[in-house]
Amino acid sequence: MEKLNLISLKDIKINDGFWNRYLNLVPKEVIPYQWAILNDQLQDVETSHSIRNFRIAAGLEEGEFYGAVFQDTDVAKWLETVSYVLMRQKDSVWEERADEVIDLIGKAQWDDGYINTYYTIKEKGKRFTNLREGHELYTAGHLMEAATAYYEATGKDRFLHIMCRFADLICDVFSEENRKDAYPGHQEIELGLVKMYEKTGNRRYLEQARLFLERRGQQPDFFEKEIKSPEYHLIFPELKEYDPRYSQCHLPMRMQKKAEGHAVRATYMYAAMADVAAAYDDVELLKVCETLWRNMVCRKMYLTGSIGSSGILERFTTDYDLPNRGNYSESCASIGLAMFSRRMAQITADAKYMDVAELALYNTILAGISMTGKSFFYVNPLEVWPPSCMRRTSMEHVKPIRQKWFGVACCPPNIARTLASLGDYLIFQKKEDFYVNLYLSTQVHVKTDRGEMLLQMETDFPNSGGVGIRICADAGCSGSLHLRIPNYVDEYTLSVDGQALSCEIEKGYAKLPIGQGTHEIKLVMELPPRIVRSNPRIRENIGRVAVMKGPVVYCMEEQDNGENLPAYYLNPDSLKEEYDPVLLGGTTVIKGSGVKEEIDDWQSDEPYGGHEPVQTEAELMFIPYAYWCNRKPGEMLVWVKELQK
Length: 645
Hints:
Layout: E1 5-6, E2 12-14, H1 20-23, H2 25-38, H3 50-57, H4 72-88, H5 92-108, H6 117-121, H7 136-154, H8 158-173, H9 189-200, H10 203-215, H11 222-227, H12 263-279, H13 283-299, H14 331-348, H15 351-367, E3 383-384, H16 411-420, H17 423-426, E4 427-430, E5 433-436, E6 442-448, E7 451-459, E8 466-473, E9 479-484, E10 492-496, E11 499-500, E12 505-506, E13 509-514, E14 517-525, E15 530-532, E16 544-549, E17 552-557, H18 558-561, E18 568-570, E19 576-580, E20 587-597, E21 615-624, E22 636-637, E23 640-642
Parallel strand pairs: 5-9, 18-23
Antiparallel strand pairs: 1-4, 2-6, 3-22, 4-5, 6-7, 7-8, 8-14, 9-13, 10-11, 10-14, 12-13, 15-16, 16-17, 16-23, 17-21, 17-22, 18-20, 19-20, 20-21
Helix pairs in contact: 2-4, 2-16, 3-5, 4-5, 4-7, 4-16, 7-8, 7-9, 9-10, 10-12, 12-13, 12-14, 14-15
């Protein structure tokens, strides 16, 4: 099967009113801030020690290992972020620092190619003895992704050669002749190996990715055998009780039909399955991916594109179990969902997958980073009452404000690399056919076999639904432009060179012919604020509604509405929108009318009684969910009670 291709980030120039505030943060604030943390230069954040771990492993310093077993991945994702930024703009300072880090990684590499500071410093004789918890292969995968990105950005191959040596070692150690039953506890190496294959052409890497996936869930259970080994020792006490569903090894890959276990592990595996299905033209495996995606999106996903509802073990639970206040919804899980959905869109050319990727990008992923770029959410609830977020309770994982860093800091650099590579989601190419997935003001310049093409897009999306596209194509160029018509758009108009056009919709894309010369395309989508209700199987939301505009989920904040947000009832027919150029740097807000149940009628502090509710008229104000807690801490609510007519 032939995938739609990504366009190099070097050929995509984004200059968008909505996204610039975040994209410009990455080189100006996020990369320097995270660099300072990786080097332990900030006094008021969690210690990282990540760079020092590599210096110790390289023999340049004396000291002990510090951090999680996968601490190296913070460095890997930082390097990957720098790589994507370098594709957009030259920056000699950060390129030089990246080269220094890559040189350090090379010095920490063993003679046989192995790289991992935890097992080099702390557990030198125990490498590859605890695949269930050790995260060696997970860490290797992130380093591989960083190496391929840096090679594409700079053309420098030192990092790629370093990781080729490690990939060769992994292929030797985990070959069918040696450890034919072994696979990683946390999936990620599969994604890294596929990218290494794509950059080097070494098919051995692709085959090893496939082998890791195919072995998973086979009997006898590999992890059960590993746990019984005298070399094994428990790293994470919370994983003492072994549950094969947690790491998606309860069934062979091709027999899995439901999203199970740790949400990040699951989505990384599903994304790799999609890669392998495409590379091997494996129709059966693609159908498995489609089944898992549908189960996850239809039964286990929040309105905001977040997944993994359980605060214990960051995992999926049963179908439609989607609590709003105590949910986990790790930022990395939404990133994994976007990665998986994007790959499925590339393979199938079906816009439904990009509907979900867009939802995650505009909501949970953006909510994970502040507008300063220097604080982050790991957990993404849909309702917050700050006094209840107490330590040593079932709510301690929920933070009412973004944190400067974390002891386990996988989310901040993951958000950074996702924002820096946003162009990968924007538009796909297949020869002279282009698939526009997201509507951002941007310029895309590509070369085809028959000439060059320039696509310029201007829009104020999602504040409004008007999109102007200019295409300039060399003589001899002809193809198709496929414009995604999102699932939330009921009415739209299309015109080409001023002439109204009615065109066929194919898997959610409006298909327009492209000819040589310059053409002006106008797409106008109606994006009114709208009420969303949930399937009554989602018990938490019965009698409640949410507010959206386009892909953007809206929420109430205490700062705009006062305290006790669950006491509000919204009239669903009262929505109106307005653009506030000052609030939160400029945003569309949505207002509505309703009532609020007052507490003043309760003269005592008794919790229960026979009082009739006293309701007063109220005005409700909603802001984008992604922007919550960018002013001052307070309550937040997405699903509000519906005022019955």
